[in-house]
Write a structure and sequence with these properties.
This protein has helices at about 30-35, 40-45, 50-70, 80-104, and strands at about 1-5, 10, 45, 50. It has about 100 residues and is mostly helical. It folds into 2 domains: about 1-35, no CATH class; about 40-104. The radius of gyration is 26 Å and the shape is rod-shaped.
């Protein structure tokens, strides 16, 4: 006997729908459950890259460490920081765009 997941009624073993409420008894897995829902995937992406937030965090964390060390050693790297950040953001945007195109 197969029990209905919605109402709990007993149904025949080969029944496809519940005889009481009509709920499907045999479900096929949806593609969303196999590959993750698109909304969930997009939450994990930044700059169009999977786990892009992690990548951005590592890069900016590294930059902050370099800035901190240079400040402690009194080395002036201020003129490099602005352009470096712009270059990194530009590279991430280009990589994200190429990744999106390759997924289509």
């Amino acid at each position: 006997m197969v029990y209905c997941p919605k109402c709990g009624k007993k149904n025949e073993e080969d029944a496809e729908f519940c005889s009481s409420c009509g709920t499907p008894l045999k479900t096929t897995p949806r593609r969303d459950t196999c590959f993750g829902r698109p909304e969930e995937r997009y939450k994990d992406e930044c700059f169009g890259l999977p786990h892009g937030g992690l990548i951005v965090g590592v890069i900016f964390g590294t930059l902050l460490i370099i800035i901190g060390i240079s400040a402690m050693l009194k080395i002036d790297i201020g003129y490099i920081i602005g352009p470096s950040i712009m270059i990194i953001i530009g590279i991430l945007i280009i990589i994200g765009a190429l990744y999106k195109v390759s997924q289509k």
